[in-house]
Backbone:
């Protein structure tokens, strides 16, 4: 049986979903979505049912992209998403507003189960619930009570699903999703009926909420921003302070594993593939887990507690002159972990122009895939000094790179605001939910989902690219390689090089004439003004698949070059890199220029794919690649000139 | 033997990348949530 | 006398008279802006926009531009 779960936002719908399915859920086909359809398995007795969590809406008629899923799934009985039954989660403390959506769904004639949630809150507010009377109003619906926060109601909901009442044929046809007039008439009529029927059920006291001092502080005209900045600083501090420890451990473990494998496995090309391609490739994925997990842990807590809605509230007025929306804060923050969930989270923005600008600038926020690039380059070129007694220069540079990305995201947004034309007027209608303590189960499930999707979706692609890269670095046109190796051997003999030095020269020549080496060489004239050599060129090429491949590529390139024999870490190897003329490759100027390049360049196929799908056009992803590429090249060039 | 394995793994990797690339950029998605979006843009 | 919701100062209680015709009308109605509903303006974001109002025990935030569409009348407390 296919069951759809619908309800207003903030009714505890996702708690109910988690309560019913636990970890037996997955998110659509698409990576990194919380706004998308979530499907879980619901076991009743011995039977498995498919439970789909549809985005929270106030009405069946959509007003933003994420809400369209609800209309599309329920309006067309021929659709493959059309459910056999619907669970409508109803907030007992806000019955009137919630019954609008419920009555719309009820009138579709699908077997319907009403889950009255948060009954404790309603009672606390002095509202008495007359379930029997509600039952009279909707005789063909089953009604159960639940309190998902306290984890109670699971069995009743299951029981309710088993005993669903069968329905007489569909009573209404929905208005078209763009027929506002018809929707207006319908909504008005529905509210009239609901008000009339509820009138004697609910004592309506127009008692305004008492605002606590804490609440006032969080939305205070000045302190509100101070608190939000503090929250951000604390989050990022935690993410960095705590993530580096497991990341170093993971890095070390994979290096050791690689060395150990090369010893125990018989010598041969497959062993090379495993130790130089596959193991570093997997390591390059796994190393991101701590950061992604930590960042989403904090974002999930902010969302759970209701603070995120306040952030949207206080940021809206500031974001508007930039062509953005208060809701853009969430996509931009998520993009610090990864632009993919960020771009998708923009679906909650109902105005297409604000949404489009958010999507276009989100990848400028430094995502976690850039962190290894930054940290590697900072370790190589930035001196380990302290200024003003306390500030570590390396830390400052890292912070500066993040600021650069953020500032340019906002600048580009302003420019886009004047370029993109829109007839529609943006709007913000947002419920500010009550503050609650976070439900750790929901937080845990969010973190688990994000990590799992990253490892499975992005991870497989990254691994495959590492493997292909290894092959391209290990093989080349055979006559070209043998010819240049011959030359190198003669050269080595002339210079009286030791055996070790000769071997090194040969491998470096082999790499230079491998397929990827040839590609890097071809690119060299273009990137020379930025201070890069052909090996960096190789990494830039592979980075177009995904930025994090940079470190992996560097590792692969230098591992191939010295046959994986030396125990030097990557930083040591790169610091020692010399050009043919003996000058250092990774100078301060070249390294900084490379960092700036990575701040701006749109080097992530997965994000581009998502942008293409979200905007349903090639135009926007191409514009994005274009403007970010220009920014990257100019920025890197200027940096190199200033610093050298 | 090792060469055969390498070719096999490489083949799988290439196939996978190709398929993903096609899927993400070119395949028509029957279930496309972002689709109506562009109609408003034009 | 009818006024628009955007002109109401904090802590004032008012009653909805109607929503002006616009593409947002349905959405505002869905959020509870229906005739006869009593509202209380709770607080404003910095720079006075958006505003947060109490609608039957839940807090709704909306921009000034949206609030202008909602016609209200004062309730005599």
Residues:
């Amino acid at each position: 049986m296919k069951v759809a779960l619908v309800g207003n936002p903030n009714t505890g719908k996702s708690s109910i979903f988690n309560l019913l399915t636990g970890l037996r859920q997955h998110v659509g086909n698409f990576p990194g979505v919380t706004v998308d359809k979530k499907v879980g398995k619901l076991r009743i007795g011995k039977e498995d049912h498919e439970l789909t969590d549809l985005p929270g809406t106030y009405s069946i008629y959509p007003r933003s992209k994420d809400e369209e899923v609800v209309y599309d799934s329920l309006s067309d009985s021929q659709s493959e998403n059309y459910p056999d039954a619907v669970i409508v989660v109803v907030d007992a403390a806000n019955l009137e507003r919630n019954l609008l959506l419920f009555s719309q769904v009820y009138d579709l004639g699908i077997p319907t189960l009403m889950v009255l949630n948060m009954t404790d809150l309603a009672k606390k507010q002095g509202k008495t619930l007359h379930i029997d009377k509600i039952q009279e109003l909707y005789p063909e619906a089953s009604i159960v009570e639940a309190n998902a926060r306290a984890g109670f109601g699971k069995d009743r909901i299951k029981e309710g699903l088993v005993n669903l009442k069968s329905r007489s044929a569909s009573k209404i046809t929905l208005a078209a999703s763009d027929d506002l007039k018809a929707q207006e008439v319908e909504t008005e009529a529905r509210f009239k009926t609901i008000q009339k029927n509820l009138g004697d059920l609910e004592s309506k006291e127009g008692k305004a909420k008492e605002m606590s001092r804490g609440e006032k502080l969080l939305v205070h005209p000045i302190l509100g921003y101070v608190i939000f900045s503090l929250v951000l600083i604390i989050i990022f501090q935690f993410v960095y302070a705590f993530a580096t420890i497991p990341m170093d451990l993971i890095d070390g473990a994979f290096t050791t594993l690689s060395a150990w494998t090369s010893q125990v496995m018989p010598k041969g090309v497959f062993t090379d593939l495993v130790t130089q391609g596959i193991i570093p490739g997997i390591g390059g994925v796994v190393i991101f887990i701590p950061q992604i997990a930590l960042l989403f842990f904090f974002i999930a807590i902010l969302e759970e507690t209701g603070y995120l809605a306040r952030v949207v509230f206080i940021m809206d007025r500031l974001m508007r002159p930039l062509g953005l929306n208060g809701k853009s804060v969430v996509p931009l923050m998520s993009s610090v972990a990864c632009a993919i969930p960020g771009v998708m989270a923009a679906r909650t923005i109902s105005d297409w122009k604000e949404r489009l600008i958010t999507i276009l600038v989100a990848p400028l926020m430094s995502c976690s895939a850039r962190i290894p690039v930054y940290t590697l380059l900072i370790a190589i070129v930035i001196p380990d000094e302290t200024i003003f007694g306390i500030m570590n220069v390396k830390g400052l540079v890292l912070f500066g790179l993040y600021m650069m990305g953020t500032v340019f995201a906002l600048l580009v947004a302003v420019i886009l605001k004047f370029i993109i034309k829109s007839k529609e007027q943006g709007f913000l209608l947002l419920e500010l939910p009550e503050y609650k303590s976070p439900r750790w189960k929901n937080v845990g499930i969010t973190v688990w989902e994000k990590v799992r999707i990253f490892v499975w979706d992005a991870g497989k692609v990254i691994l495959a690219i590492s493997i292909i890269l290894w092959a391209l670095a290990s093989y080349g046109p055979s006559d070209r390689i043998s010819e240049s190796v011959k030359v190198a051997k003669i050269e080595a003999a002339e210079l009286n090089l030791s055996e070790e030095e000769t071997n090194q020269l040969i491998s470096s020549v082999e790499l230079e004439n491998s397929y990827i080496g040839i590609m890097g060489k071809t690119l060299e004239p273009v990137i020379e003004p930025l201070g890069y050599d052909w090996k960096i060129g190789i990494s830039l090429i592979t980075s177009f698949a995904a930025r994090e491949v940079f470190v992996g590529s560097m590792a692969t390139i230098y591992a191939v070059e010295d046959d994986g024999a030396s125990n030097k870490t990557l930083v040591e190897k790169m610091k020692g890199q010399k050009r043919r003329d003996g000058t250092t490759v990774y100078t301060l100027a070249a390294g900084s220029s490379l960092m700036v390049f990575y701040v701006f360049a749109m080097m992530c196929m997965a994000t581009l794919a998502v942008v293409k799908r979200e905007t349903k056009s090639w135009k926007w992803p191409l514009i994005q690649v274009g403007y970010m590429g220009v920014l990257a090249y100019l920025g890197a060039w200027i940096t190199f000139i200033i610093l050298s | 033997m090792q060469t055969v394995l390498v070719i096999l793994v490489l083949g799988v990797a290439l196939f996978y990348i190709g398929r993903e690339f096609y899927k993400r950029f070119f395949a028509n998605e029957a279930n496309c949530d972002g689709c109506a979006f562009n109609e408003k843009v034009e | 006398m009818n006024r628009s919701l955007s002109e109401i100062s904090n802590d004032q209680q008012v009653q909805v008279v109607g929503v002006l015709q616009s593409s947002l009308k349905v959405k505002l109605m869905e959020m509870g802006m229906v005739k006869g509903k009593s509202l209380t303006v709770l607080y404003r974001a910095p720079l006075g926009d958006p505003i947060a109002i109490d609608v039957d025990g839940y807090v709704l935030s909306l921009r000034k531009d949206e609030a202008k569409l909602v016609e209200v009348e004062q309730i005599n407390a």
Summary: Helices of chain C lie at 25-30, 64-67.
